[in-house]
Amino acid sequence: MYKKTDKIWMDGKLVPWNEAKVHVLTHTLHYGVGAFEGIRYYECGDQGSAVFRLKEHMQRFIESNHVVALELPYSLDQLMEACLETIRVNGLKEGYLRPVSYIGDEPNAGLWAHDNDIHVSILTWGWGAYLGDEGIKNGIRAKVSSFTRMHRNVSMTKGKINGQYVNSVMAKLESKKAGYDEAILLDTEGFVAEGTGENIFVVKNGVVRTPQLGSILNGITRDCIATLLKEEGIPLEESPLTRDDLYIADEIFVTGTAAEVTPIREVDDRRVGTGKPGAVTQKMQKLYDDAIHGRTPKHKEWLTFIET
Ligand code: PMP
Q: Residues 287-301: pLDDT tens digits?
């Protein structure tokens, strides 16, 4: 459940939450061409609140739009400032930020609509642990999905593109209906790709492995974890992972802005390792938590403080 806030930034104007509406002929509603981001901001003790890796998220937002041939009418700086303004005006100290772009309803209604106006909205709301408090503490139960992650020439996986999330929503639905917390999707070659909104890491005999970029989103949390592992001297390999690599792993965890670092304690009804979050997972959870809350001086560059 999300917590509503007061105002939504829509094309440069701050609009009351209940009035932030679009026309039903909005092109993106029909065909899914647009992009979005998911960003979190956190309280950092007496330093105030800070947005975590704002610049990287908004750079990816621009790139995602570029991938689907949408050139936004805003610069990176303008978009970053709009994000900060949305946070400031709503007064939350911690929350989630959702920039979204979409093609408008005029003048074209068919597929060819790249001369329609392009819109950007930015929303913020309060959001707790995405995979549940219990999940982040003790681990979640995951199921390998019957839905395949889309081939990189079917969807364009470097982009966080609206319509592509049908794949994630279907996989999530299937896993939840079957009584699991999350789905793990395989790619078209049958190797492990990612969760519905998370990247995946597998620990075996002290080595951490994660799928290479190819049919997965280039996660910003994934990048943080790669940095943190390196700083800890824990080896990380980008390599193909099979379904049974998951079954025989010592530890598995997933990463994402929403999910943060969440342990997986069971895959397809097989216990992972001891069935409890392992040492590497716990270390990454702690280091990530320190970084997002401004407790790691060397990673201050990941934070954009919100001036009030
Ligand atoms: N994969 C998918 C499919 C996602 O939607 C997300 C969430 N953006 C991620 C991975 C994790 O990305 P990030 O760490 O940048 O939030």
A: 999 999 999 999 999
Active site residue 160: yes
Please compute Rg for the chain using Cα positions: 19
Distance between CA 211 and CA 193 in Å, rounded? 6
Burial of 24 (0-12, 13-18, 19+ CB in 10 A): exposed
Pairing of strands 182-186, 140-148: parallel
- The backbone torsions φ and ψ at residue 113, rounded to the nearest 5 degrees and listed phi first, read -145, 25
DSSP run (H or E) holding 80: helix 76-90
- The dihedral over CA atoms of 182, 179, 161, 43, expressed in degrees to the nearest 10, equals -50
- Which residues of the chain form beta strands (DSSP E)? 7-10, 13-16, 39-43, 49-52, 95-103, 118-125, 140-148, 182-186, 192-195, 199-204, 207-210, 236-238, 251-256, 260-267, 270-271, 303-305
| CA distances to 27, 182, 203, 230, 275 from 157, in Å | 21, 20, 25, 25, 32
Q: Which of 7, 143, 160, 172 is catalytic?
A: 160
Which is the closest atom of ligand 1 to the Cα of 223? 14
- Which element (helix H / strand E) includes 290? helix 279-292
Given ligand 1 and candidates 64, 97, 217, which is best to mutate, with the most ligand atoms within 8 Å of its CB? 217
pLDDT digits (tens, 9 = 90+) for 232-279: 999 999 999 999 999 999 999 999 999 999 999 999 999 999 999 999
